[in-house]
Amino acid sequence: MPNQRVAVITGGAMGIGAECAEQLAHHGLHVVIADRDTEAAAQTSDALIKAGLSASAVAIDVGDSTSIAAAFSEIEQRFGRCDVLVNCAGIAKVFPFLDFPLDNFEQTMKINVTGTLLCSQHAARIMIKHQWGRIINIASVAGMRAVGSGRTAYGTSKGAVIALTRQMAVELAEHGITANAVSPGPVDTPMTKLLHTAKFKQEYSSAIPMNRYGTVSEVAAAVAFLASEQASYITGISMPVDGGFLASGARGI
Prior knowledge:
The chain is α/β, with parallel strands linked by helices. It has eight helices and seven strands.
């Protein structure tokens, strides 16, 4: 374990986070499933162990600074290192702009942005000791382009995550740490199944040159690349994984 690299995945119990954990584990890393849902985190970790991979679980609430500090203290004590951090935990709710509730806006920013900041600070302090690290933030195309109605908080938070990623990249480069964002288009996850109506999914898919939603595996593959040695000269970017959505304008003839 002392020489095995350790990857921490917040929101790693399900969806994109769980797939990131699995792919990183297959690349030989010990993955720490960090999630508020401790039962689901343990189940995901156990499944990876049963598959012959290296994994463990830790409780974290990225909306609580005390919980974040405790989780990373535990990680450093148990493993002595944190080489890769994937900030995947996040929330999203949809309300009309004119009626968007202040409490939800503040909660979304606290979890999606402040949580990402604090987790990255704690992880980077550990990474600096080894002069090597990879921070990958899960952003969204909604942070680069308005996507439908109702995403005032979510889109704003993901735009802030992309800006935060650039700032981290600049300040951490001298320590051998890269910071990048992956910005998925629509992906079939538990969250999108709740938020996307059948009509919205059809309209969204028609705006994508590939005419479909992405998969968690396709997003995780980008994360795994950015976490690798091969991505050593890439930092400060937001990589769209969106089937061409951001590149496309009017479609059809």
